[in-house]
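As described in the Methods, two query proteins were run sequentially through the folding procedure within a single session, without resetting any intermediate state between them. The first query and its resulting structure tokens are shown here.
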Amino acid sequence: MSQKIRAKLARGKRGKQKKVDRLTRAERRERQIVGQAAWIEQWTDCAQTFIEALLNREVSEILGRPFHTWGNRTEPITVRAQCNRCGRAMRGWFRRNGTYRRTLVLPGIVVGVRVPRLRCHCGATVDLSFAAFAPYARLSPELEERLREGLALGMTLRQIAALTAPAQGGPLAKSTINARGQVVARLVQACHQSALEHVPPVVLVDGIWVKAMVPTGAEFVDRQGRQRPRMRREKIGLLVALGVDPTTNDWWVLDWERASQEDQTNWARLLERLRERGLTAERGLQLLVSDGSDGLKAALAEVDLGVGVKHQLCVFHRLRNLGKAVKGLGAARPDAAEAEAKEARRTRRREVVSEAGAIYQGTDRAEVLRRRDAFVAKWQEAEPAAVATLLRDFERTIAYLDVQEAAEQHGEHWEARYLRTTSRLERLNRRLRRMVRQVVLFHAQDGLDARVYLILMQAGEMLLTPGANWSDVVEDALAAVE
């Protein structure tokens, strides 16, 4: 031992230990794959044993007797099974008749199970539906739920198939995944027709556009000789109504409507359905906020939502239009360089829009009108187009002041940010637009409705019981409508 090492040991320090050889990343990955394969094999065997035990127990509960025991045909007890020939449903007539093989796809594994079979004393087979899976269904309810969750997250059919492929031994067919989403269309119809449990005092409305295939009315014969409807690609509008409760700061989607355009007819159809579901002034509606669509304005004159309901134009959209109308300094100086003119106009636009926005910071009507008059006096000569944009329907841009005043009389303070813009709905629309960009094109309008419903549920934009899981709510609702 060297003198240096002896000195370190004397001071109580340990010598430097040699590191143990470690696995490389490739070796560690290889071991993980081998271990995962062994785990999947064991899990498959375990799942098979468990499912078969459940099925046998269910059959024993139906027959009311253990294995290798004959039934009493005089026993007048009926069960949830029926003979396919004689139609009897009395358990004393049924007996076990071996098993048949069935493949069931679970999340992560594919299991082959032996399903018990029943036969009637008349010699025919017995129709029996098990709780573990639906008749002729290859996918387990848990996997179907996972597929719908993928749709709710905005994933495409191809992405969901690729995500589930490694564990299932290959990708599921896109039609299989799509069918699990199409069943949600039943819930959409119920959502459109059910009465509103809670009517919000404020409703924001706006529309977005998506691409979808619509039938033309003509048909053609495909390569397999089948009659097919001829389709064409069109833009379809989604008119969305979002409820807001300023007292609790809650918001949720009330309804939506597919529309060919944002005209009076389509807006009136949405408003009329909302009125039939209970959205009226008598039940608490006070304010409707929109971006200023002419079709909506005409629809409001057609559909009576009750006395006292006011129509507020979105202040943000008004300021954006005002900024577009700003002429700027560059127009008054034609000899200025192009870059200088653009910068001058940008500076002027920021100044004008900032001062116009300050108008709506007033705390009461008198202060707002005083700021408006000061803005008009300052910019009337330099920016007449911007001033005209501000003054157009100005009263409808401050309708929220009357609603705030009415709330104050009832001892409630409603913040203006919930009453004068559609910004909250714009954030929701951005989420829907992301889904639209991913999917690109919807081949069925029911599929579009189902996607919108699932995405709204997953995003927490639908009214749910506090603490409820959106996926459980969807699955419970699907089970109730079957």
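Immediately afterward, the second query was submitted; its sequence and tokens are:
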Amino acid sequence: MRAPVRDPCSRARRSGRVAAVLPWQTIESVQTRAGILELRRRGERDFLITIAGRILMTSAAHRSEDELARLACTALTGKPRPKVLLGGLGMGFTLRTALDGLPVGARITVVDLNRPLVEWNRGSLAFLTKNAVADPRVKVVVADVAQVIARAPAGQFDAIVLDLYEGPHAATNSARDPLYGADALARTWSALRPGGAFAVWSEERDRAFEDRLAATGFSVQRHKSGQGGRVHIVYVGIVGPAAGVKGHTTSRSS
């Protein structure tokens, strides 16, 4: 799962302003297979989502999500009607940035396992992203994105973007991992058009994943998002001749 977000109150504690920080209030709670999924709010604009007591994401920190979408859209420059598959909705920030970077002829299919997240994005969280899920270019599907990719016809998408709680890491290095294993990458390659992009959020660098991407035939770029503190990784693989792995650093504020 994604690493827990740092305590949103820690900066206030260090500055001695604890009394000025409002408490988090749970506004919705749903039981899932992974534990209790909760939406919490502090004040009018601060939100966080937890599962089984772990903080997954906050409305205050979405730098890596923005960067993931930006890099994926950059790879689609010049395509007037790109078809994009986005795995993972979260609070909708990845989707919002993708919509801002894609032409009016684009079509984005968003796939998420948890229906409550979809409902929250249509309700309490909608104003954070200008109601991104309601954009006419968007179709939302409640399903397993690994299965959607596996069932996709060859060459269906111009880009596949994975912004999931669990990115590639040592535990997902099995050839049979449904998202990041060698077999799954072959299915992803097949679902993409020539020149298509496969963009993946990762908590940290995973060299074994990089090797599998290159072995599948992707030309791979590794981007570091931000400077200082926790720096996440965005992988972008392009369908084309294998060209090893190129590293890049991008600095963007959250």
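Residues 63-74 form the longest helix (12 residues). We note this only descriptively and draw no conclusion about the first query from it.
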